[in-house]
Every structure is written in C-alpha cells, then in structure tokens.
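Crash report, auto-generated. Payload:
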Amino acid sequence: MYKTWRLCRTHTVGGLCHDGSHRFVSTGGAKIGKKFENMNQIRDYLSRPVWSVHEYLGINTKEEKLEPPSAEAVKKLLRLSGLPLEGADIKEIQMRLAKQLSFINKLHNIPVEGEKHTKEYDARLVQRNTKQLNYTKLLEGISHQKQDAELGEVSGSWKATGLAAESKNAYFVVKEGLLKNRK
Amino acid sequence: MPLKRSLKESIERLSSFQSKYNIFTSINPSPYSITNKKGTKETLTGCVASIKDNIVTKDFPTTCASHILENFKSPFDATVVKLLKQAGVHILGKTNLDEFGMGSGGVHSIRGPVINPLYPHEDKKIMGGSSSGAAASVACDLVDFALGTDTGGSVRLPACYGSVLGFKPSYGRLSRFGVIAYSQSLDTVGILSKKINVLRKVFHTLDKYDMKDPTSLSVELRELIEGNKKVRRPLKVGIVKEFSHESMPIGFHRLYLSLLEKLINLGLEIYPVSIPSVKNCLPIYYTLSPAEAASNLSRYDGIRYGYRDSELDIKDGILFAPTRSKFGTEVKNRIILGNYNLCSDAFKNNFIKAEKLRVNLIDEFDGIFRFPNVLTNSKGNPDGLDILIVPTSSKLPGSIRDFEEEEAKSPANSYINDVFTVPMSLAGLPSLSMPLKEKTPIGLQVVGQYGDDSTVLDFVESIS
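Recovered output after restart:
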C-alpha cells in the first residue's frame, strides 16, 4: 500500500534522492500510501490503531523494572544543579529519576537510520551546510561592529546593578561565604 | 462579527473571571492605547491581548510563575510585545503558566492552577499547559488573542482544552528576543485566538526577522520560502498511521470522520502516511528538553536580578543553593534529570543519541512533504503531501486532583499528554490546533512543512 522514499545525503542533505524520472528508490523510512478512494477506506484505516504509547514506554506494565541511581549519584546531581542537599528527599528523587530514566532509556534500543552520515548538529533547527567561519572572517566581523541602539546599546541607558537585590557602589555583592568554605 | 472587543468590557468582566479561573499573574492597570498611524490592512489597532508571563514586558512584572523571578521587572520589552504595541494593541495583562513553561496541566504555578472555564459547574478541571492562562483568557472572551509559548505543545494542548485555536508557527519565524528560555532548540512563540482572521493578522504582524534573536529565520531564507510558494491543487492531506492510537477521547472519531468527509467533498485528496520516527519522540524530547533547561536555568543565582536569599549565597558547599531552593518541584526535577543527561556518564548514550534520532525524524518529515525545507535543503517530494492532520490530545481534560495524583505516581503519566504535539516541535514544523466542535475540548492539529505556515493558515481558514 505504501510508496517508500529514500533519504539521500549524497545528493541533497536530508532531502530526497532523485533519479531524474520522478521515481524514488525504496528503502524504508517515511512512506506515503495510495490515495483513499472513499470514506469506508478511511474508517477502516482509522479503526486499526497501530500502537499503544503506554505499551511502548512500558508504563503501568509488570515488566517495568526500576533501577534507581545511587544516593551518592543523586547528591552529585544536586550539587551540579545548584540545589540544596538539606531538605532534599533523596529516596524520592532516586525513585523519580528511575521512572524518568526507564522512560527515556528507550533511546538505547532505537537504531539511528544512516548512523554513519547522521550528524547530531543537524538536529538544530537552523540552516544546514552553511559556510564555515574562519579566524580571519571572525576578526573581519568584529572590526565592523559598532554600538547599535536597536540592540539596546545606548550609553547610560541602563544601570547594570539596577535589578540586583543587593549592590554597593555600582558593584554586585557576593557574600563572604561564597569564597570560603567551598567543598 | 467585529474583530475587536471593547477594552472597557474586558476590564469589567476580568475580575469575576480572574477569581473563578485564576487566569492572570498581573493585570495592566492602564492598558495601552496607541493609534496605528499607518492604518495598513494588517492593523491590529484596538485589539485586546494577553501575554504569557514568560515573555518580558517593561511595564509590569515578568515572573514565569516562579518564586525565583517574583517581582522581577524587565528593563525592556520582548520584540513580539514591542511589535504588538506598535500595531496599537491593548495589553490587558500577563497570564498564568506552569513555572518556566514546564508542565502540561497548568498546575505548576506559584499562583496556583488555572481552572478550565469550559467546566464552570463541575469539579475543577485542568486547562492544559503550559500556556494555561493564555488559553483561558481567550476561552473566556477577555481578549481577541493571546501570546503563549510552545516548547513541546504548550500552546496547542491548552488551546485544545479551551476549544480555541492555538498556532505554533515554524521555529524561528517569530522572534524570541525577550522570551525567557526553557529549551532553546524548541521554544517558539505561539498565538491563541477564537478567530482565524485575527490569528492570521497577529502572525503577519510578528512574522519578521529580528537581529536580536540569533535563531531568527533570516531574510534570505524567508524570501526563498516565498519563492517556493506555488498553487498546489488539489491539496494533498495525510493521515499519519503512528498518530492512530487505541485510546482516544469519546466522540473524537465521529468528529474526525465528519471533518474528513468535508475535506473529500471539498475536493481534497487524502492519503495514509507512515512516519516511523514519530514513535520515538517522547524519549527524544524528554532527553533534550531537560538538558537544555538545566543549562538555561543555571543563570538564576540571585546576584544580578530576581529573588535572592537574604542570608546566604552558599549552603553545604553548593553555590547559590539557598536562592535556587525556591524553584518549584517540577522545575527542580527537570533540572536534575537534565544534568543527569548532560553528565559524562550519560552524555554519549543519551544526549547525542537523542540528537541523531531527531535528525532522522526531521528527514522523515522532509520525505513526505511536497514543499521544500529551506533549512535542510530538501527539494521536496514532488509526489508528497501538503498538510498532515493529527489529533492534539489523547485525553479530555481531567480534574486537577486526578492530574496531580497521576503525576505523583510517575512523571511519565503527564509526559504522555505531549505524544501528539512533540514531533512537530522537534522538527520545527508549523502546527495549528483547531477545535473540532465549538465549546468542546477535542482538537485536531493541521501541520505543514517547515516554513509553509501560510498553507496551514489557508487550510484552517478554508474549513472554518
């Protein structure tokens, strides 16, 4: 029922491989089927769900085995996150992380299509294959920069410490403990 | 039907709706009254709008519904706010949300949950999140339109639950300068309204390159998209196999089939389509978005702005922990998960794998659309589709109590709410959730190829 289209990075990155006669090579991936001719075909198609998100993610199933990260690992994560240890319910965080990880660890078993040619940085939603900047071009770019009111760069228009809860003589204040007694 | 409502009327009704549904975090005591001198056909002069409280405004506070930014007032307006003010829009207030946009129920706010106004006489039901207040402000007819933000469905899900239109444009179309970052590779400003003509005008007003936003779609690429536009007749619509789930809200299929019949009668062609990567989207999303959130929220130390602990900057040897303890529970959970995904033990296994699978998803979408993708250089599939139609939610809005209980059992229970919306966020596609029936929280998303926002808007207008 489905036509299939090969994604071809040799001709057009992320695009379709075109053989010049408006026909595409079939290898899997996304597929478009034949046009529905009537509502009965559509009803039939919609009456057959193909998967259950609960089953796929192993939620509410007996097979779900949770392996919580250790208490030490949780404490390390709290430190990395700038969150206090005092008052933190370590066991609760362990269990919660275990459930979150059982959910996202599904990734391990999913094969990447065309792994060799797939670049993780193409996941960014910006133009692919832009021209590379080099040191000279960077310097050239900087040399043309000037103060721009459109960017809010207006001299004297803004007091840097104006939004700080504590400041002194136009400096930000960090308390003494910040520099001492650090682990 | 008039485009603009009376500002006086909105202000009069606001207080009773606010006390019932907890829609706003702050209300503008003197809404703007600016005349648009240009008087173009896109003018929004006199329209009333609300702004989600994670978009900065210099005239009243921006809190992200968090203790961390309580009383914070930005020294500047976000670009989208500036453009609305220039267009003569009255801004009624800032709307409630899940703290920093993290949540799908609209319940994680220091101001308390937003209550769904579609159920005035029943047990309090969720509005959906995170743009919960934005959707409620539109559903209550307090505003002509609302600005929200959509990271994984945060405009579309509450729009569905409030039975209003919710549009997430292509990533990069609307400026994010002044939008407080949650997950920068996904965050998009979105528009909610009851009327497609209003939504379209707002979109055209805001759809501009902004040099202040490094991810703003360039002028060159916008011109390329315009150049790619051709009349496509008949319009080809796809129904995605992977979005066909066993559990759908009661009444969904009847309304869905009725719409499909209407499309056939209008001469549109309908095709089955399979996009296998759609199944992988929730694990991809919940690997990437908390990692980006952990990075973005590391800036809140209390030194330069926002809340600061009055006694200490360090506790247990952890910098800024006394201040950062004021984050809400859901935000803390996502920061911890994000840092786990980013730490050296897990980095290669989780983060990069998720990025590569995201590329697979984008490429699969490219494979089924007729319109080219200017970001990936896909030339478009000449036999491809123009529009996909996808359900917005697999559930009806439940009670706030049930939602909180389910979420406490496992965070995955609330993550599942995003199953129909996250794929388009990961691929940056324009997606508009429209109600299938008036005052009914059942919606359908109309999805186009990257950059093809106008086809999505035209399609919805043609069937409204």
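Post-recovery validation: Helices of chain A lie at 39-46, 53-57, 71-80, 90-104, 135-143.
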